[in-house]
Write a structure and sequence with these properties.
Elements: E1 10-17, E2 20-28, E3 32-36, H1 47-53, E4 58-62, H2 79-92, E5 98-103, H3 105-116, E6 121-127, H4 137-141, H5 156-160, H6 164-174, H7 184-194, H8 199-208, H9 210-222, E7 230-235, H10 242-247, E8 254-259, H11 266-269, H12 271-282
Parallel strand pairs: 3-4, 3-5, 5-6, 6-7, 7-8
Antiparallel strand pairs: 1-2, 2-4
Helix pairs in contact: 1-12, 2-3, 3-9, 6-7
Length: 284
């Protein structure tokens, strides 16, 4: 089995959801867990977590719209719309309630889903990325490493076309505690997926939607905080305990977790500690 091959227990399905088709790997039995990836990766980041959880859970791993092997629609990259993509997948697979485990932009989609479909979420794990409109976002945006949040303009796609690996290396290197742990095989794998027609456009549009996401999230938060148990995980060399501080603005039951010897890319830098922490939370 290659590093990005899911175990034989998993089945693949392309699930239609209005204007997009979502690529899903699913398998196992027991309580359902949905794994949502972020930028610079696809659902393939979750292979070690999925292989562990599938022993006693039903595990669903999605590629977000426009990324990985999901289809590449021209729009719909606000996170409320993408929460609808998740709901469509669950409806198609006839799954009612789930635990969410999310990373990076997956956190934002997960928050929108948890706020809009609270009755369907039993627990929520967010890993190492803030949510637009929640907590001290303006202070976070002052970090010069987050320049890409505002990278845009008519030439942005032309600037990186054919240079996807160069562009993505910036993130894999700058947000790692130890860049070498983001392997050469992983870099080539994701660079090829982001070089697919429409993929880099979709990635840019995920960020371009942040202002709308902030407005949407403030409106959702005004209706009340999340009530389900939340585990907010930060990499020791990245957001650390700040993740829990942020989520306490948005949820009433927040547990903090820090992955040691890790930056942002927790599943590459310290997968064993990440899996152990998520498993312990699922057993609460």
């Amino acid at each position: 089995m290659t590093a990005f091959a899911f175990p034989p227990a998993f089945t693949v399905k392309h699930v239609p959801a209005k204007d997009v088709t979502i690529y899903v790997r699913f398998g196992g039995s027991g309580p359902a867990v949905v794994l949502l990836h972020g930028y610079g990766e696809t659902g393939d980041m979750w292979v070690p977590m999925a292989a562990d959880l599938v022993r006693d859970h039903t595990v669903l791993v999605l590629d977000l719209r426009g990324l990985g092997l999901s289809s590449k629609p021209p729009g719909g990259f606000d996170k409320k719309t993408q929460a609808g993509d998740v709901a469509a997948v669950l409806d198609d697979l006839k799954i009612d309630r789930v635990t969410l485990v999310t990373h990076d932009i997956g956190n934002m989609v997960g928050y929108a889903f948890a706020a809009l479909y609270a009755q369907r979420v039993t627990r929520f794990v967010l890993i190492d990325a803030p949510i637009p409109g929640i907590g001290p976002r303006e202070e976070i945006l002052k970090n010069p490493l987050l320049w890409h949040f505002r990278f845009g303009g008519p030439d942005m796609e032309r600037l990186v076309a054919g240079r996807e690996r160069i562009y993505l290396d910036r993130f894999w290197n700058e947000f790692s505690a130890t860049p070498a742990r983001f392997s050469e095989d992983a870099r080539n794998h994701y660079a090829q997926l982001y070089a697919m027609p429409g993929a880099m456009h979709s990635g840019f549009m995920q960020f371009a939607a942040f202002d709308q996401d902030a407005r949407d999230n403030k409106a959702l938060l005004a209706k009340g905080k999340l009530a389900m148990p939340v585990l907010a995980i930060g990499g020791e060399k990245s957001f650390g305990t700040t993740m829990a501080e942020i989520m306490r603005f948005a949820a009433t039951d927040v547990q903090s977790g820090v992955i040691p010897n890790s930056g942002h890319w927790i599943m590459e830098e310290n997968p064993a500690a990440t899996i152990a922490m998520v498993r312990a939370f699922l057993a609460r």
